[in-house]
Amino acid sequence: MRSDLLFRLEEERRLRPGARAAEEALESALAFVPRDATELARLHDAALCLRVYPQSPRVLALAETLLARVPAHVARLADEGADLAPLDDPSVAGIAGVPVAMPFSHAAASWLARRDDDPFFTGRRGRKTATDGGFAELNYFPLGQDGRWVLTALYNYIDSDLVEVRRENASLTLTYLLARNLKVLGELYHDFERDDDRLLLGFVTAF
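Now predict its structure.
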């Protein structure tokens, strides 16, 4: 049954080892035709997980083949007039072939204004303290969002009645992705408050 195949594929993400079972599930999934956006989202999620954490080289190859067919599934469902709204959900957004739309304020710009008559939580109230601040960020992908290079411009600003928390700085960061969990970067940083410049070189990793 259709639901059984999707369930099997989803279960293979949790069973380790189990390369042969994962290979069989993926081979069956290659002939699977999602009837709606929800089935496509489940198929994509399971295949993506097996692509990132494959139990064998063949699981990796089969998962990549399955994922490569996703844009065709999206186009077919769109032609059939299917409701693609489930693919806009943040938990599944980013599927190939689906336009990605985000609010401008999401991870791009933010502004906060605060008025507090007890900013240090001492229990003693007095004249209200005003603090305003925010940031703006712009990312540029010279080779597209699947490329390894990213250029990021970031500006931070805080104005406050409390002199010690005032900030204004900007940075320009060039990042190169060496591997899925390792990237190197170079950053030019300028502090407008202290009239200070810095050049940073480093790497970021996670396990």
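Residues 130-205 form one domain.
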